[in-house]
Design a protein that fits this description.
This is aldehyde dehydrogenase (NAD(+)). InterPro entries: Ald_DH/histidinol_DH, Ald_DH_C, Ald_DH_CS_GLU, Ald_DH_N, Aldehyde_DH_dom, ALDH7A1-like. Homotetramer. This protein has 512 residues and is an alpha/beta fold. It contains 14 helices and 23 strands. It has a seven-stranded mixed β-sheet, with helices on both faces. Strands 14-15-16-13-12-18-19 form a seven-stranded mixed β-sheet, sandwiched between helices. A three-stranded antiparallel β-sheet has the order 5-6-23, with no helix packed on it. Helix 9 links the parallel strand 12 and strand 13. The protein is globular and about 80 Å long. The chain starts with a helix and ends in a 15-residue tail after the last strand. The structure holds nicotinamide-adenine-dinucleotide. Nicotinamide-adenine-dinucleotide binds next to helix 7 and helix 8.
């Protein structure tokens, strides 16, 4: 029953329009374009925000540089203490922040809350990590010499995020980057600035309470042009960019031209292989959730099912029945399975993909379409649909960010794996089977070529403990758990001579 106005108030988001912020300090010296933010849930205007202008940008960079000079010398476990406090503050604000994520982005309330939980989890992970930024020690080939490696912070980490995970992606990067001794500048999606403002306010409060420099956490609002500025800016020591493959290619070219560092987390075209030895109940749940969850707007959404010919017809019939039971509507209502797409442009992309699929010979066994009526007044609600298709069709080779599922048929597993790998993207993949040989082949060097390969769970919904990311056009970056932290630091190899001689490496003799 809580109104969105109440939620915004509880998250300390005022009607006043912001452009950029370092800590609690808002810059609005030369406001750029004003952009209205609409909810895809009901089409209502939630607020307007300014984009940062050039002076705002320069001020943010200056604050971040200054903050880094301090932060890099703070012991890592103390940096972890800041992240621990942030995680606790997120626990306190979970319900309001989750609600705002759901309302601004359109995902279900459960998924909005889940996204905030993911932020809390990565904070916990980063706190532990702050005592474990281990380097190796090596045996020198020279007597009375010691070799070791150390990991030092990079500097300013820029974070460009996509609309579909409006807050979690920031935390995956920022929590790790901070314990590693970096400062962060976040450019959220222009489609979801309010959740970002809410997070920045929470982080800023904790910095202020700890008398820490404001520039440790900065926010800069704007569209692709601000993202391009970050990509071209040598002050940005690492740019972690999440979004479409088109964006990633542009960022890679700009960062590459200045020989900078980047982490790219881009689009996917994820498939589940369903073998005759699968538990079909489990396969059905995994496939339906993967394809329609978040209205097909996850980078890990299931876009293709590669089904063995012996079970194809049976599984297709069960899918059609399951799709018939889906409830589409307001994502804040827990009874609904599928919420809206982010905006009307996304609806157009969905309709165009359906038309292209039909033109290429696709056969829709569950038809799509845009929903009309009072409950769907935003114009962003679409029907999840299913088409029988061929892997080589152009539309199947692309990621359409909407709930369109393609059914592909196979007769032997090597053919299924070739199909699974036979797309430009390489993010997430799965096999449904109870056969050990099939599962292990899928995970082997001649199996899936994706960054994520699962057995008996679907393609979507990763845990923060593992390194997250994909291959090929999915970008090649890794974020979050495992040793992904190493990308946020620079490695330094040290050789220390504690003898009174100066022997050279490789036995070289040099005397004067
Ligand atoms: P998008 O590429 O349109 O925008 C993403 C972000 O990049 C936004 O902040 C945008 O302003 C910025 N941007 C766009 N063009 C840019 C450029 N040339 N230079 C610098 N910045 C630029 O993507 P979207 O529609 O917000 O999100 C959906 C896409 O993101 C899908 O392709 C999805 O698969 C992908 N995604 C990937 C992951 C992952 O971890 N692999 C996670 C979430 C989303």
């Amino acid at each position: 029953s809580q109104t969105i106005a109440d939620t915004l108030q509880k998250l300390n988001i005022s009607a006043e329009n912001q452009a950029a912020s370092s800590g609690q300090n808002w810059f609005s010296t030369d406001k750029g374009a004003l952009r209205d933010v609409f909810s895809p849930v009901d089409g209502a205007k939630i607020a307007s925000v300014y984009a940062a202008g050039p002076a705002d940008y320069d001020a943010i960079i200056a604050q971040a540089k200054e903050a880094f000079l301090y932060w890099r010398n703070v012991p890592a476990p103390q940096r972890g203490n800041f992240v621990r406090k942030l995680g606790n503050a997120l626990r306190k604000h979970k319900s309001d922040l989750g609600r705002l994520v759901s309302y601004e982005m359109g995902k279900s309330l459960q998924e909005g809350l889940g996204e905030v939980q993911e932020m809390i989890d990565i904070c916990d992970f980063a706190v532990g990590l702050s005592r474990q930024l281990y380097g190796l020690s090596m045996h020198s080939e020279r007597a009375q010499h010691r070799m070791m490696e150390q990991w030092h912070p990079l500097g300013i980490v820029g974070i460009i995020s996509a609309f579909n995970f409006p807050v979690a992606v920031w935390s995956w990067n920022a929590a790790i980057a901070w314990v590693c001794g970096n400062v962060c500048i976040w450019k959220p999606s222009e489609k979801t600035p309010l959740t970002a403002i809410a997070c920045q306010k929470i982080a800023a409060q904790i910095l202020a309470e700890g008398n820490l420099p404001e520039g440790i956490s900065s926010l800069i609002l704007g569209d692709a042009s601000i993202g391009k500025q970050l990509a071209n800016d040598p002050n940005i020591n690492l740019l972690s960019a999440t979004g479409s493959t088109k964006m990633g290619k542009s960022v890679a070219a700009a960062v590459g031209a200045r020989l900078g560092k980047h982490i790219l987390e881009l689009g996917g075209n994820n498939a589940i292989i369903i073998t005759p030895e699968a538990d079909l109940n489990l396969a059905l749940m995994g496939a339906v959730f993967g394809a329609v969850g978040t209205a097909g707007q996850r980078c890990t959404s299931t876009r293709r099912l590669i089904i063995h010919e012996d079970i194809y017809e049976e599984f297709k019939a069960r899918l059609i029945k399951a799709y018939g039971q889906l409830k589409i509507g307001n994502p804040l209502n827990a009874e609904n399975h599928v919420g809206p797409l982010i905006d009307k442009d996304a609806v157009q992309n969905y309709l165009q993909a359906i038309a292209r699929c039909k033109a290429e010979g696709g056969n829709f066994v569950v038809e799509g379409g845009v929903l009309e009526g009072a409950e769907y007044a935003s114009g962003c609600y679409v029907k999840p649909c299913i088409a029988e298709a061929k892997n080589e069709m152009c539309v199947v080779q692309e990621e359409t960010f909407a709930p369109i599922l393609y059914l592909l048929k196979y007769s032997d597993l090597s053919e299924a794996i070739a199909m699974q790998n036979g797309v430009p993207q390489g993010l997430s993949s799965a096999i449904m089977t109870n056969n050990l040989r099939e599962a292990e082949l899928f995970l082997s060097a001649s199996g899936s070529d994706c960054g994520i390969a699962n057995v008996n769970i679907g393609t979507s919904g990763a845990e923060i403990g593992g390194a997250f990311g994909g291959e090929k056009e999915s970008g090649g970056g890794r974020e979050s758990g495992s040793d992904a932290w190493k990308a946020y630091m620079r490695r330094q190899t040290n050789t220390i001579n504690y003898s009174s001689d100066l022997p050279l490496a490789q036995g070289i003799v040099f005397s004067v």
